[in-house]
Amino acid sequence: MPKPLRMSRCTWVAVWAVLCVAGIAATAALNAFPAPDPQPEKPVSAECAEYIADIETQLAKAKREGNDDGVLAFTRTRAGADDCTDEVLDHFSGDR
């Protein structure tokens, strides 16, 4: 069985320093690029816009009353109502 290569402490320090410099250079290069353009907002149906406005109203009311624990429950009972799940998640995704 071959003997493993022995490396001196100076060699280990040099390898560590080279890796640190490479990491710092890579980080600087990644930070130099601008962030990608945000996706344009998709049009929201009038019914979904009304639903989102209702949610915002209820959130504001809960905040005024001191019930701002971040938990609210919403139900929709109308048959044939638009599915606004994606629109609601897109609208409130910045709050996460």
Task: Please explain how this structure is put together.
This protein is mainly α. Helices cover 53% and strands 0% of the residues. The protein contains 3 helices and no strands. The longest helix is centred in the first third of the chain and has 24 residues, at 9-32. It is elongated. 3% of the residues are buried. It comes from Streptomyces venetus. Residues 1-28 form the signal peptide. This is Secreted protein. Keywords: Signal.
Average of per-residue pLDDT values: 80
Determine the structural class based on helices, strands and strand pairing. Answer: mainly alpha
Q: What is the overall silhouette?
A: elongated
Quick one: how many beta strands? 0
Topology:
Layout: H1 9-32, H2 46-64, H3 85-92
Based on the model shown, name its key terms:
single chain; 96 residues; mainly alpha; 3 helices
Give a summary of the structure in a few sentences.
With 96 residues, the protein is mostly helical. The mean pLDDT is 80.
